[in-house]
Amino acid sequence: MRRTIDAMSDPDGRPDPFEGMPPIFGDLARMFQQQGSPGWEAARQLALGVATGHTSEPNVDPVDRMALEQLARVAELKVADATGLPTSRTGRGLQLVAATRTQWVQRTLDDWRPYFDLLATSLDDTDAGPDADLPGLTGDAMAWMAPLMKMVGPMLLGLTAGSMVGHLAQRCFGFYDLPLPRPAGDEVLVLLGNLDEFGREWSLPADDLRLWVCLHEVTHHAVLGVPHVRARLDALLREYLAGFEADPGGLESRLGGLDATDPAGFQSMLGDPEVLLGMIQSPQQQAMLPQLQALVSTLVGYVDHVMDRVGGGLIGAYGMVTEAVRRRRVETDQSSRFAERLFGLELTQAAVDRGSAFVDGVVERAGEEGLERLWRSERELPTPAEVDAPGLWLARIDLPE
Questions:
Q1: Cα distances (Å, whole numbers) of residue 335 to 125, 164, 338
Q2: Cβ–Cβ under 8 Å, residues 219 and 175
Q3: Which residues lie across from 95 on neighbouring strands?
Q4: 3-state class (DSSP) for residue 294
Q5: Is 316 helix (H, G, I), strand (E, B) or coil?
Q6: DSSP code of 54?
Q7: Neighbour count for residue 207 (Cβ, 10 Å)
Q8: 53-62: pLDDT as tens digits
């Protein structure tokens, strides 16, 4: 049976599989079994609390909203002209909306929920029944640890999803800091509070920084709005996420050293992203990662190229802003890097340089006209080997189909 973050009850319908379990584990497990989509709501509340520091956020100033809308119109026209791609998916026009962290969290959790549900499904070891043997567990230990071991992976995922999205909301500028597909639509949220705070830290002109981010968001939205590009990236992400495997033995080794009466120890384990990744990475994922990473590197390299081509003549402090924002991208914080690793992205400097080298190689050999073929059809998407050798890509796409 398919399991989502909300569906974490005992699969056999027993009255209370956590009876006799040490209180800290039983209480945590029951938190995910309350009525009303408890697992997802717990993740949502955690994300909102982390994002806002449990304080009320002021609404965005209407003047700032209107200023962003004006910059977005400029960015939309310039990106459409430079790429030849439609910037609107619906035909009604793209709308960049100045949003609060609360609004960004709500939308992002909804947009990414299918991916988190897929992760929860892959963590559910459907072949292991309630009486399945777990290494090193016997007698009384098996009585309370077995149901915990079956549930704790998805439970950790719910908590981690909330924490991850909450921390991202403290840092992200818009929808596409992580180049993940969003549901069809033409509303893109921009976090002006984060943007302005970053601008003050780096002494960047506010309007130049805002226009830079508008170009970034509009270009990503245009490329990910190409149906076959979006479909390919979504398929690769789903294949990667479905490849995660629960590792009860690995989790047991982590739980084995904990004092069940010490909440601080358990909370510390929950706060360590390496726990979740160490539990569930699989060799199958490593085998398909080159395809995902090749597409993401190409996408990032292309976006950077378009922005350099457009922004240099449009933004007075373009070089200064670009240096600051791109340094921030590759010197990201732990929560952002964890999110990249969870989705198989890892936007390291090497990955960014790889995409840039591919795009530069295509332009050197075939000009901007050759680069325009990149998103023309699924056949034109480069293979991992071609990303490292753009001449091979050009030779292949010129061959008769």
A1: 27, 6, 5
A2: no
A3: 187
A4: helix
A5: coil
A6: T
A7: 15
A8: 989 999 999 9
CA angle 317/321/324 to nearest 5° reads 145
pLDDT at 336: 77
- 234 three-class SS: helix
Supply 2's token pair: 């398919």
Q: Which two tokens stand for residue 371?
A: 């680069």
DSSP string over 314-365: T-TTHHHHHHHHHHHHHT--HHHHHHHHHTT----HHHHHHHHHHHHHHHHH
Q: Is the separation of the CB atoms in 376 and 393 below 8 Å?
A: no
Low-confidence ranges of the chain (pLDDT < 50): 1-3, 5, 7-11, 14-15, 17-18, 20-38, 126-145, 149, 270-271, 273, 401
82 and 309 in contact (C-beta within 8 Å)? yes
Rounded-to-integer distance, Cα 67 and Cα 196, Å: 13
Residue identified by tokens 């590759």 is: 330
> Hey, which bits of 57-128 come out as E strands?
95-98
The amino acid at residue 199 is G
| DSSP 8-state secondary structure symbol assigned to residue 97 | E
Length reported for the chain? 401
Question: Tokens representing 89?
Answer: 């998916």
Q: Is 193 left (phi over 0), alpha (psi -120 to 50) or beta?
A: alpha
Rg (CA), the chain: 23
Smallest CA-to-CA distance from 39 within 165, 164, 154, 169 is with: 154
Q: What is the residue type of 295?
A: L
